[in-house]
Specification:
Distance between the termini: 18 Å
Radius of gyration: 28 Å
Shape: globular
Number of strands: 19
Structural class: alpha/beta
Bound molecules: 3-hydroxybutanoyl-coenzyme A
GO cellular component, one term: peroxisome
Family: In the N-terminal section; belongs to the enoyl-CoA hydratase/isomerase family.
Strand content: 5-15%
Subcellular location: Peroxisome
Subunit structure: Monomer.
Helix content: 40-55%
CATH class of the largest domain: Mainly Alpha
GO molecular function: (3S)-3-hydroxyacyl-CoA dehydrogenase (NAD+) activity; 3-hydroxybutyryl-CoA epimerase activity; delta(3)-delta(2)-enoyl-CoA isomerase activity; enoyl-CoA hydratase activity; NAD+ binding
Number of helices: 28
Length: 672
């Protein structure tokens, strides 16, 4: 490794020393690089033949920042001395305070510590499209190499604050307008351009604030938030490393044309995501009215993206031109992938799959967007089960970042790899999971809603539950979520969950009662909350009548009196059963590794990223405590809380829930 991690210096006849950071793929500032920079700078200052220094990165990228792996080591050991002194010793003293001028030559990206190095230089020159930013807050820290001091001086306080607090990247073109970049040039002219800037003069900044920044930075590096966010950073990148799929020399095939069956909410969202990534889409519906409705929804999705500023009008028009409507399968003969997104009816899906098997080319991947139905059942009537795969998007599909890729024991590694590649192409985070009811996310979170209903049945206020869960960091509480998702979904999956999860279901008829009382959730403006156009949801006091009726049916309140619980009890009684189900999901190897479930919970359910994801959070509490609480509640309220054997085992041995299972260890060993 150390061979490819190095800093080089070449001194030209013109007296310019070009110092290059080499650490593929993003030239992260590993301690070897920091040491190398210090040495090369010291040498450049000493050498009489060096008049000026150009600092750059190899491979078309300047630098992606400080090496985040070092934070992981600091988190494990608590040893802050693993962090080399960069801010004062390198950036302030050697680069900024050095007696020879330094110019940063930027290409590709200069992020975090990378941008901070350039700001210590006396000038910056960049290619126009290079991405510049200080995304440290996404890792739970602040910029630590002087960025908090130098960025405001260069771009002004408001812009610097926006860039830092929102971790917003800007292109060098904008950087030039704002004074962060001194000159723009093409990649070929970068070197020559640097020399011109050297000639034009130098900018010196002071040292004020750098020492304070260093102090705060050190405190934050050791914070639980930084540990959680760094875990999420690496966890997200790990999801696309799938043993037996991405490590066996398979090549992803090009997916040029995709057919989407069903132009409802999900189908049109999926089509939108594909179209904005320049993929041709055939949208198939059963009649002209439904087709037109689907096309209109896609157009509205695209217009929404233009309004949000994430798509230009030109790109919207280009995307629309890639869409073709269809009422039969004649356009399916040259598609590379089909994504079926019709309603959750087993027979309908089965007949669609047996039809498309006949009309699509033999390489075509046949994906279903089902969120609950067993894939083996969907593909039962086909002879191509190796090409059948789940592509479970989350609504709205063109915005939500998670793509659950569901494989059966028959799905071929090639089909999985191709779908991972499509997922990345449409800017989703793919997580590969096994085939079971609810797959990883819906299965893990089925007790989330049920637990909240159980709490209501014992007398806890609906809106208090939502407040507790929102203050924990979820985007909204379980009741507001149910209003938003619509009660139809809850009713449709109820029986499926009962048959799959048996006695660990908490059987609630709250939603049935809501519907019987004319409430449909957000869709008819009346759920637990009242929804008025343009306004925020308001708790509806009249829902109390429905809740009273529900409590009478449920007969869960001892002596008819509400149970008294603290906010912490509420939080734990909702999330510990979810953690318990996560244990079963890991035990059955539905996910490849615990961190996949962390990422899926963050991106699919909005679990707070700064808590590192569901399993990471549970491990900060510890299996013994979670187990003891669940056991106690199981005695009072029954099997809904009964600890799984996985949790029990780990609690007994005080092992982290995230430690690999024996099967996972064996599969890693067999690949070594
Ligand atoms: C003191 C200082 O102020 C503190 C800092 O500098 S903290 C670091 C600040 N920098 C960042 O937060 C940037 C983090 N990186 C990113 O956002 C993105 O990786 C990127 C925009 C640079 C590139 O994105 P993309 O091209 O999609 O590639 P991506 O898959 O994310 O990364 C490629 C590889 O580089 C690694 N990598 C990226 N940035 C890294 C970093 N700063 N440190 C260590 N590894 C890094 C990734 O883990 C990944 O490794 P893998 O191939 O083994 O999975």
């Amino acid at each position: 490794m150390a061979g490819s991690i190095r800093v080089t210096m070449e001194v030209g006849a013109d007296g310019v020393a070009v110092v290059t950071i080499c650490n593929p793929p993003v030239n992260a500032l590993h301690p070897i690089i920091i040491q190398g920079l210090k040495e090369k700078y010291a040498e450049a200052m000493d050498r009489d033949d060096v008049k000026a220094i150009v600092l750059t990165g190899a491979g078309g990228k300047f630098c992606g920042g400080f090496d985040i792996n070092v934070f992981t080591e600091v988190h494990k050991t608590g040893n802050l001395s693993l962090m080399p002194d960069v801010s004062v010793e390198l950036v302030s003293n050697l680069i900024e305070g050095g007696k020879k001028p330094s110019v940063a030559a930027i290409q590709g990206l200069a992020l975090g510590g990378g941008l901070e190095l350039t700001m210590g230089c006396h000038a910056r020159i960049s290619t126009p499209e290079a991405q510049l930013g200080l995304p440290e807050l996404t890792l739970g820290i602040i910029p630590g190499f002087g960025g908090t001091q130098r960025l405001p001086r260069l771009v002004g306080l408001p812009k610097a604050i926006e860039m830092m607090l929102q971790s917003k990247f800007i292109k060098a073109k904008e950087g030039k307008e704002r004074g962060l970049v001194d000159a723009l040039c093409s990649p070929d002219d970068l070197h020559q351009g640097c020399l011109d800037v050297v000639e034009e003069g130098v900018l010196f900044g002071g040292r004020a604030g750098v020492l304070k920044e260093a102090k705060v930075f050190k405190e934050l590096v050791l914070s639980p938030t930084s540990k959680a966010l760094v875990h999420a950073f690496f966890g997200q990148r790990l999801t696309t490393k799938v043993p037996g799929v991405t490590d066996v020399q398979l090549k992803p095939r090009k997916i040029r044309k995709v057919a989407v069956i069903g132009g409802g909410l999900m189908g049109s969202g999926i089509a939108t995501a594909l179209l904005v990534s320049n993929t041709s889409v055939v949208l198939k519906e059963v009649n002209p009215q439904f087709l037109q409705r689907g096309q209109k929804m896609i157009a509205a999705n695209l217009e929404g993206l233009v309004k949000r500023g994430s798509l230009t009008k030109d790109k919207m028009n280009k995307a629309m031109s890639l869409l073709k409507g269809a009422l039969d399968y004649s356009d399916f003969k040259d598609v590379d992938m089909v994504i079926e997104a019709v309603i959750e009816k087993i027979h309908l899906k089965q007949s669609i799959f047996s039809d498309i098997e006949k009309v699509c080319p033999p390489h075509c991947i046949l994906a279903t967007n089902t969120s609950t139905i067993n894939l083996n059942v969907v593909g039962e009537k086909t002879n191509c089960q190796d090409r059948i795969i789940g592509a479970h998007f989350f609504s709205p599909a063109h915005i939500m970042p998670l793509l659950e890729i569901v494989r059966t024991e028959k799905t071929s590694p090639q089909a999985i790899l191709d779908l991972i590649t499509v997922g990345k192409m449409i800017k989703k985070v793919p997580v590969v999971v096994g085939n079971c009811t609810g797959f990883a996310v819906n299965r893990t979170f089925f007790p989330y809603t049920q637990g909240s209903h159980l709490l209501v049945s014992i007398g806890i206020d609906v809106f208090r539950i939502d407040r507790v869960i929102s203050s924990f960091g979820m985007p909204m509480g379980p009741f507001q979520l149910q209003d938003l998702a619509g009660y139809g979904v809850a009713l449709a999956v109820k029986d499926i969950y009962v048959s799959a999860f048996g006695t660990r279901n908490f059987d609630s008829d709250l939603v049935d009662l809501m519907v019987a009382n004319g409430r449909q959730g957000k869709s008819n403006g009346k759920g637990y909350y009242i929804y008025e156009k343009g306004g925020r949801p308001k708790p509806d006091p009249s829902v109390q009548l429905v809740i009273d009726e529900y409590r009478r049916h449920a007969k869960m309140m001892p002596g008819g009196k509400p149970v008294t619980l603290t906010d912490q009890d509420i939080l734990e009684m909702i999330f510990f059963p979810v953690v318990n189900e996560a244990c079963r999901v890991m035990d059955e190897n539905v996910v490849i590794r615990a961190s996949d479930l962390d990422i899926a919970s963050i991106l699919g359910m909005g679990f707070p990223k700064y808590r590192g994801g569901l399993v990471f959070w549970a491990d900060t509490i510890g299996a013994p405590y979670i187990h003891s609480k669940l056991s106690k509640w199981a005695e009072i309220y029954g099997d809904f809380f009964k600890p799984s054997s996985y949790l029990e085992e780990r609690a007994k041995r005080s092992l982290p829930l995230s430690a690999p299972t024996t099967t996972q260890q064996a599969s890693t060993r067999s690949r070594m």
